[in-house]
Amino acid sequence: MNIFRLVGDLSHLLAILLLLWKIWKTRSCAGVSGKSQIMFGLVYITRYLDLFTNFISIYNTTMKAIFIAVAIATIYLIYFKFKATYDSNHDTFRMEFLIVPVGGLAFLVNHDFTALEILWTFSIYLESVAILPQLFMISKTGEAETITSHYLFALGSYRALYIVNWVYRYYFEGFFDLIAIVAGCVQTILYCDFFYLYVTKVMHGKKLSLPA
Amino acid sequence: LGFHDIKDEL
């Protein structure tokens, strides 16, 4: 474990708790893409199947359990409890356009052709594009609530920090996982224009609104 | 250099 990965994980935890809190407090999931949340749920479930088989550390197990639980709770709030506030007219990104190619790629490009490894690879690839429906929804509505933009900033920062973690581990531990690195770079690149808007607008107290 | 096959990252 290194500081980059720890701060990255905490940023990730902050992001998902922030979103859950926003929906619970405002009793509304307006501006939140349920499709992205479904895909994040799929990401955690397919990646953390080893939750009960191989124990890495208390931290690792606890975080995995929290991520899965918070993802499920968020999906429940969006599609059941506060379903009336779910903005399905703007959450129109076709998930199958992401899940099918990612599933195919996981079969073709992986470290080991075993079920667990292919599911892990699927999870890594899916995570890199899972935010697209959310970014697409913001581009359609033309704006995002400030709390939602903080969620996105924390979520985008987590994988950016993981890239620093991989550089660190490459030089100090001789560790590298090309699949995770490439997918992590794609994922972080997708946030770039949002990061720009966040830094230029939200940090100056303005609402995040896309140029119409 | 090689990649770890244990998945110790989240």
Give a brief outline of the structure:
The complex is a heterodimer of chains A (212) and B (10). In chain A, 71% of the residues lie in helices and 2% in strands.
Description:
- Chain A is mainly α and 212 residues long.
- Helices cover 71% and strands 2% of the residues of chain A.
- Chain A has a two-stranded antiparallel sheet.
- Chain B has 10 residues and is low in regular secondary structure.
- Chain B contains no helices and no strands.
- The N and C termini of chain B lie far apart (21 Å).
- In chain B, 10% of the residues are buried.
- The mean pLDDT of chain B is 69.
- Chains A and B meet through helix 1, helix 3 and helix 7 of A and loops of B.
The best one-word shape of chain A is globular
Continuous helix count of chain B = 0
Mean pLDDT over the full residue set of chain A: 96
Task: Give a count of the beta strands of chain A, DSSP E runs of length 2 or more.
Answer: 2
Defining key terms:
heterodimer; A: 212 residues; mainly alpha; two-stranded antiparallel ribbon; 9 helices; 2 strands; B: 10 residues; little secondary structure; elongated
Topology:
The complex is a heterodimer of chains A (212) and B (10).
Chain A: H1 3-26, H2 34-47, H3 58-81, H4 96-108, H5 115-129, H6 132-141, E1 143-144, H7 146-173, H8 178-190, H9 192-200, E2 208-209
Antiparallel strand pairs in A: 1-2
Helix pairs in contact in A: 1-3, 1-7, 2-3, 2-5, 4-5, 5-8, 7-8
Chain B: no helix or strand
